[in-house]
Amino acid sequence: MKSKLKYNLLSIIVFLSATSFVQAQQNKEVLIDTLIRRANRLGMFNGNVLVAEGGKIIYKAAVGYADASKTTKLTTAYRFHIGSIAKEFNAVGIMMLQQQGKLKLDDKLSKYLPELPSWADSIRIINLLQYTSGLPDVKWKTVKSDADNMADLMKIKQLNSEPGKKYNYNNNNVFLQRRVIEKITGISFKQFVEDYELKPLGMNTAVIDPTEKDPLIARAYDNKGNTDPFFNPISGWTAVTLDDFYAWANAITKFKLITPQTTREIINGVSANRQSGLGGGSMSGDKMISHIHDGTSRNYQALLVSKVPEGVTIILMTNNKQGNLYAISRSIEAILKGKPYAQIKKSFTDEFRAKIDSLNGAQIIAFYNDVKAKHADEYSFDGEDTLNQLGYYLMGDKRLADAITVFEYNTKLFPKSGNVFDSLGEAYYNQGNKPLALLNYKKSLQLDPTNDNAKKIIAELDK
C-alpha cells in the first residue's frame, strides 16, 4: 500500500511539473505576442518573428502587411530581404572552398582575378572577409549593375589604405568575394548558393535577387507610404522566409556547412566591435556560444540572435524599418528569462532626425529633455541606449563636437556604465584628442574589465 502511495505521489509531482512547464511556455508565448502586437499597433513593427527556446520553436508569427497599400496581410510564407546578413552566404562559401583546398585565406586577390589593377596583388582573401582591403565603397548613386561596379573597380589607381591596416565596412569586399567564388567554381554565385548552401539545408523557398514577378516577396516601404525600388545595384542577395532563416541559423551554430575551426575564422572580426563574415558572436573551443547579425537594405531590416547554450534563437524581419529590432530582441530575451522587460517605443533619434540636424549639441540636450518630460510614454528613454544612438548618429554625420556633448551628458546620467565612457572615448579618438580619449577608455575599462576594445586602444595610445 505504501509503495503504491509513493508511486501515485510521484506521478502527481511529475504531472504538476510538466503542467507548470507547459503553462510557463504558454505564458512566454502570450507575453511575446502581446509585445509584438502592441509594437505593431504603435507603428513600431511590421514583419515576421520566430522565437525558439531549448532548440524548439515556441513562437512564430506574421504581423502587419506585405506592402505599403496595407491591403495584403503578411503570412509566414513571405520572403524578406535581410540586408547584410545575406553576406554570410558568400563568407561561408569562401570558407567551404578553403576546406576543399581550392583557396587559402592568405592568397592574393590577383591570383583569382588577375584582370584587376595592380592593387589586387596587395589584397588577400582574408582582407575581404575582415573588411580591411583598403577598397572604397560601391558608388551607389551611379552603379546600376555588377558590370558597372567592376568597371569602377578597374578605374581605381590607389587603395584608401594599406590592406590589413584599417577596417572599413563596405560592399566592394562582398562583391569581390562573390566574384572569387565564381572564378573558382566556374558557375554563377547565384547557382553556387542554390546548389551548395540552400538545397543541402532544405531552404527550398529562399530566392536570390527576387524580382517583382516572384510571389510572396514582402515589399519594403517607409513611414510615408513610399515603396522602395525593387532592384539592387549589385547582385547576390538572398531573401528568406522564417523557416529558411531558422534553418540557416542552425546550420551555422551546428556547423553543417563548415567546421568549428573554419567558423572561428569568420565569427570574429579584426578587432572588438568590428563586423566579420558572420557578423559577430563568440565560441568556446569548438562550441558556438553566440551568433548575432543584423542587416538593413533601405526599409528592410533583419536581426538574428542565437544564444546556443540556451537553445535560444530570435529572428526578426521587417519591411518597414523602425530601427528597434535590438530593443525588441532584448525584451524577448527578458521574457524568456522571466525577467522584467521594456515595451517598445518610438526612437527619439529616428523620429526627430530633421530637428536634430538643425541644432547644436547643447540645444539637442535641451530638446531631448523637453521631449522626455512631455512624451516619456511614447518615445524610448530607457537606459543609456537612446543618447548613445543619438551620439553615434552625430558622429556618423562627422559632427564630432556635438557627439561629444551628447556622450558626455550620457556619462553624467549613467556614471557606472563602461559602455558610455567607451563611446565618449571613441568620439575623442576620432576627433584626434588622444589625452581625453585615453582618459575615457581607461574609465571604461575600470568599470568594465572585460572591454577588450578599450584594452587595445589604451595600449595603442599609451605608446
Automatic annotation (TrEMBL):
<protein>
    <submittedName>
        <fullName>Tetratricopeptide repeat protein</fullName>
    </submittedName>
</protein>
<feature type="signal peptide">
    <location>
        <begin position="1"/>
        <end position="24"/>
    </location>
</feature>
<dbReference type="InterPro" id="IPR011990">
    <property type="entry name" value="TPR-like_helical_dom_sf"/>
</dbReference>
<keyword id="KW-0802">TPR repeat</keyword>
<dbReference type="Pfam" id="PF00144">
    <property type="entry name" value="Beta-lactamase"/>
</dbReference>
<dbReference type="InterPro" id="IPR019734">
    <property type="entry name" value="TPR_rpt"/>
</dbReference>
<dbReference type="InterPro" id="IPR050491">
    <property type="entry name" value="AmpC-like"/>
</dbReference>
<feature type="repeat" description="TPR">
    <location>
        <begin position="418"/>
        <end position="451"/>
    </location>
</feature>
<dbReference type="InterPro" id="IPR001466">
    <property type="entry name" value="Beta-lactam-related"/>
</dbReference>
<feature type="domain" description="Beta-lactamase-related">
    <location>
        <begin position="40"/>
        <end position="327"/>
    </location>
</feature>
<dbReference type="InterPro" id="IPR012338">
    <property type="entry name" value="Beta-lactam/transpept-like"/>
</dbReference>
<keyword id="KW-0732">Signal</keyword>
